[in-house]
Every structure is written in structure tokens, then in C-alpha cells.
């Protein structure tokens, strides 16, 4: 979703998705290599790391 976006556009897109999620109660499935983004955006228990994927937690 955000691979080729600059940081400002990525932040705007994530903010829009989060706003939509909060307003509607929708779920969001985010698949990414950007662990820092997931750790900022998701509950800690919602981030899943695969073995050998550069485990951060």
C-alpha cells in the first residue's frame, strides 16, 4: 500500500484509513515490511512477526 510513497503521503494515507476505521468500526489488515509503521499504528498484540523476518519483539 505504501511502498512507493514519500513519508508525507504515507502518513496522510494511514491517517485517512485510521479515521475511516474509527468512524465505521471496520477492520484493517496491513501486510508490510515496514515494522516501524505497524508498531506505531497497531496494538502490540496485533503485530505478527514471521520467524527469520528480522524479529523486532
From TrEMBL:
SUPFAM superfamilies: P-loop containing nucleoside triphosphate hydrolases. InterPro entries: P-loop_NTPase. Gene3D superfamilies: P-loop containing nucleotide triphosphate hydrolases. This is Uncharacterized protein. It comes from Sphaerimonospora cavernae.
